[in-house]
């Protein structure tokens, strides 16, 4: 009995232990399940909390502040102003139809403007920004802000936009900005990195060339918003960097005068320092107001500019390829002297026309100039003399000298993608380009700047500057760089074989302006302070028939598009030269009556402002 009782106790204890272990296991399993559920709930809550933060905090990139352009004296010639814009992100608007019609009423949009907004909305993705207006008045901008409670998804934005205070005076030099397109974004890393809806970028000119320096970086704002996407408070503001401000070598006063002189004319005026290569003025006419392009030019304004027969969209200074006419004669004379073809005693008898190999070549003076030497031929611009010199010289030698002095090559290198090279022909060029041999008659007319030869106004200015400085190579530039840079190793390299030849040509050009019978004698200035030397040019745009030659029509009697181009190149003051210029007036008729008088006004202003320019330059040098 005792053993039986003891066995029962053992069995009971064993059962109790199993029940305890089983209960404990169930308890711990339950605890594990509860813990797992709790962990999962915490993780899920954290996930929703993160999503809630993303919905609660918004980040906006603001348009970067663009760097300015200043003239040599620090005047802002391309600056910025605050522009008031209105953006809408369609997917953030609960009732787009209601909001857009509400905006139409508040902004007083015309039916045409409203249609354009709807068209833009259909062209973008729902999450992309729709710019309803990029240049609101302060009154309308304030009005929108006062009604934001009723405009879910509408975002008023204060942006920075471009302003050109001197309007048409700098258009072809600086260029203009307009809204960035897909090509701009893909082609320029700086634009892609700093892009925001409505970003304005350079389209042409220096605005385009220096885009990466000018663009700056974005300001970034982080805001807390409510469930309707409206701003509650600003959490963070990250300041971007303004783009680099570029100072140019241009004198605004001279640039403005160039614009005035070419008013209602098509042409170009360039002014250059003959030693530093600094461009003082560079104007192409007609011009247009670049402010028209900043917010998108209207169709009417665009058609007026595009259809203007004087082609204001063409930068004539850099893109215009012109026959240089008689402005090439200093180079012809210099080349002949340098190559020992002629000397100062060499004379030619001019009877008004000359026969060579069955072809008649006319001088501009019908009755001729009689016997002329190099100096008199330059002074009176005798074509017959230069026909003979060119014939003896040959086109290849002439081409070599012309290229030395800057013709036939881009003056600014890669600075402007629109700049033309012009054309200085030679025998090899014609063989390669046209597959034909060179003819003697082509050499003869090249000697007076006609035929295949083509030059740009800026090239003629450089050519004249290098003659004026004694025949030394210079590199023209437009941007003032405060950093010291290595100068090209061939800067100030002599372009001549004998310096005496340069002086002979300089003196001949002096006679052309300052002596009786000189072609620009009427435009002379006797005061040594302003006295300059210059060479006129008249370039034919069509071949003159014998019948037309006999009629001897005045310029105003000839249809505009058939009139000769008027040219003038000059340097001054003559005794201590410092500046050179080139002037071209398309279909101006005659260099002596149309272009040369402009030089008189230009040199007075240029030389009067020289001391101011030098004082500023010396001051900056001392500050460094």
Describe this structure in words.
The protein has 624 residues and is an alpha+beta fold. It is 42% helix and 18% strand. It is built from 23 helices and 20 strands. Strands 2, 3, 4, 5, 10 and 17 form a 6-stranded mixed sheet that branches. Strand 11 and strand 12 form a beta hairpin. Helix 16 crosses helix 19. The longest helix is centred in the first third of the chain and has 55 residues. The chain is elongated and about 140 Å long. About 1% of the residues have low confidence.
SSE-based structural type: alpha+beta
Task: Give the overall form.
Answer: elongated
Radius of gyration: 38 Å
Roughly what is the average pLDDT, rounded to an integer? 87
Helix content: 40-55%
Largest sheet: 6 strands, mixed
The fraction of residues assigned to DSSP E strands is: 15-25%
User: Number of DSSP helices?
Assistant: 23
> How many beta-strand elements?
20
- Low-pLDDT regions: 46-51
What is the CA-CA span between the terminal residues?
120 Å
